[in-house]
Design goal:
This protein has helices at residues 11-28, 31-36, 43-48, 71-76, 146-153, and strands spanning 54-56, 80-86, 93-97, 105-106, 112-113, 125-128, 132-133, 139-140, 158-162, 183-185, 190-192. It is of the alpha/beta class and 196 residues long. Substrate binds at residues 59, 64. Its EC number is 6.3.3.2.
Amino acid sequence: MSDEHSDTPGKPTLRALARQRRRAFVAGLDPLAHRLAFKALPSPLAKRLEDARTVALYIGIEDEAPAQRLAAKLIDMGKVVLLPRVIDRIGSMEFLSWHPHAQLLPGPFGTSHPEPGDGPMAPDAIIAPLLGFDRAMNRLGQGGGYYDRAFARHPDALRIGLAWSAQEQEAIPADPWDLPLHMVLTEVELIEGNEP
């Protein structure tokens, strides 16, 4: 459930390679290292999120970096945590309030989402899954356009990629509609882009 709604040449191949690389990296991780990954917010990221009232996470699927592990720290900071709910197969999703102890409902593509509750909310920051990223803050997603559309619909939201360090690539091709990330958090570092 992610990026690009039309591919430039090479993206399908990059996706296949990125999936294999991520799968191999996660399979080789020490179980303790995996359990401890993404349980803390680095100080620079916490500082960038100070003014954010709502922060969108996602529930990691298979070998995706587990964004849900950040929820407790964000809630401790006084943030409202949101999760995406896929609305249709053409790339539409909305963000719903969520607490880690709340039940999740099954969604399309293996996703899970909260009960609609009070309805959709606008995120001040979006922490997004990805297959690959580069130091120019380009993001390679799954190909469905969901996060492209979310970034466009919430242009003032801080765009943060969450990834395993092995997902970094030298260069990700960017289409005209691709909005770069502001930063990427991996299990070993926070990489900041040039945008404010």
